């Protein structure tokens, strides 16, 4: 009797895993594909003489503080959770050598409800510039970079 219970239990677990994998799958061009990893990259495109400080985190992961020099980037990969509530927030700051002070902005680098299959299917790119943060998929065809916030 314990052997049949083990078989039934294993079958139930296997069936549950298949159902969950189908629920986490997505349809693209009529094909069902598994949820892929997302990549978020933040680039310092401010100025050759300005370093960008960035600190990004989610409810589950603290990605630490990073200093990016001109044209350097910080990137991370992750999978969107089952409930599509995955969200990464970043604090960004830099100092202007022209005497205009410190510039800081907190922004949502990735939000599944905003970005899932709409804006950045695989790659989410942030270009931090003098006039603000530009966001897109890094391609000119899908979701071209657009200004999402400005530094005041």
TrEMBL record:
<keyword id="KW-0964">Secreted</keyword>
<dbReference type="Pfam" id="PF05938">
    <property type="entry name" value="Self-incomp_S1"/>
</dbReference>
<feature type="signal peptide">
    <location>
        <begin position="1"/>
        <end position="30"/>
    </location>
</feature>
<protein>
    <recommendedName>
        <fullName>S-protein homolog</fullName>
    </recommendedName>
</protein>
<dbReference type="GO" id="GO:0005576">
    <property type="term" value="C:extracellular region"/>
</dbReference>
<comment type="similarity">
    <text>Belongs to the plant self-incompatibility (S1) protein family.</text>
</comment>
<keyword id="KW-0713">Self-incompatibility</keyword>
<dbReference type="GO" id="GO:0060320">
    <property type="term" value="P:rejection of self pollen"/>
</dbReference>
<dbReference type="InterPro" id="IPR010264">
    <property type="entry name" value="Self-incomp_S1"/>
</dbReference>
<keyword id="KW-0732">Signal</keyword>
